[in-house]
């Protein structure tokens, strides 16, 4: 069947050869086995079910949460000559019923359905007389409570699958699954571990950059002006911020559009088209923008604020450079971003364990902002991709500041946390270290600690940045929560015992810190 698949690839899609992973996935499906494909955005996931849908005898159902995209996807397929259709809430009852009948008559081999459909008894009824040859679950990470985009409607999928006889193979697809999330998907959809097809997550043409403590507006304006002919997306955290930034850029003479969920669907469509057809060079948007936008020549994605986790970040940043040309992904970080995200998690109505999960994910992206290691490696490690080289082009890899030994300063911080019984957060620990005289110091009698004032002369901000670095370097862990508490990890002990050195690209002036032995 693979030979036929190759024919279809050439004939319908005009591509010469399969990409990494596509062939293996199809082999599993052709042998009747379920599989999970974890491939980066733009990796070519759709073909993995679209081609089998033309070769297997029966209907391929694709469960996808992207209702707004279904029509476009289906139109594209039809144009290529593939009989596809969709069933979702955008259809009237009559239209839906007519489509049902057409599917039953065998007019379509590929049917996209929204997960909400699975709740409809009439839909389930229709299925009873249908030969389903394959079920593809797109954006499969939505199944897992530990993923970044859990959708309750996806919980129905396992139950739904159990009702289809004979049981068809299932293909789960996602671009953003950590090893834990992938395991969860396999468990829920009954996919054996060995049917995991993980292609490299590396996007060779992307370079990652984090900038901290800079004037963000100025950076964005200068960057966009310097790259005047290039297409780019600027993600901002809120609608208000999108409007503000968009107005600023327009005032500076830049062809910038804005896009967020508060705009009417007509306005959004207009903006999106203008961007896709290069009438606008820059799109300032909330994360509502991007899903399924097939603009290949996006040369940069700037995050004006830190997003809430690595999954969202990689997905959004990954909208740059789909054509394979070098593109930049820039994250502008300010400590305030962390507090806003903590607040949003705290205010959400998630259950406690899921809140904790969100706090942990948030900490992972905060660490990404503070690490001095390769940023690309950091992301790949996060997704469990074994690729081990550093990228050589991210802002960490090209940082030429000299590496200095900061073991002594690290020991001061670590021992202070220990003396404070690992019960306090970053700000208070830093205040103790610089010898602040505020009321809290008195209330808790911190002045009596041997580590009080150990870093007298250093600024509180500087010490807090050092703590961020030690957290990102995994010497300190933060308990999840809106007010995280610093705790030592197992890596801290060898440092305290002088068995291991801590190195850092230097920004802190060591001479400002007193030379007293902390231990
Ligand atoms: P994903 O769903 O993984 O983000 P898509 O399925 O939308 O990616 O594919 C991204 C692009 O790659 C599409 O334009 C598609 O036509 C193209 N593509 C997919 N497979 C191949 C292939 N084997 N050879 C060349 N191009 C491919």
UniProtKB/TrEMBL annotation:
CDD domains: DEXHc_RecQ, SF2_C_RecQ. It is an enzyme of class 5 (isomerase). This is DNA helicase RecQ. Residues 26-195 form the Helicase ATP-binding domain. It comes from Salisediminibacterium halotolerans. Residues 219-366 form the Helicase C-terminal domain. The keyword Repressor does not apply. One of its GO terms (cellular component) is replisome. SMART domains: DEXDc, HELICc, HRDC, RQC. Belongs to the helicase family. RecQ subfamily. Coiled coil: none annotated. GO terms for molecular function: 3'-5' DNA helicase activity; ATP binding; DNA binding; four-way junction helicase activity; hydrolase activity; metal ion binding.
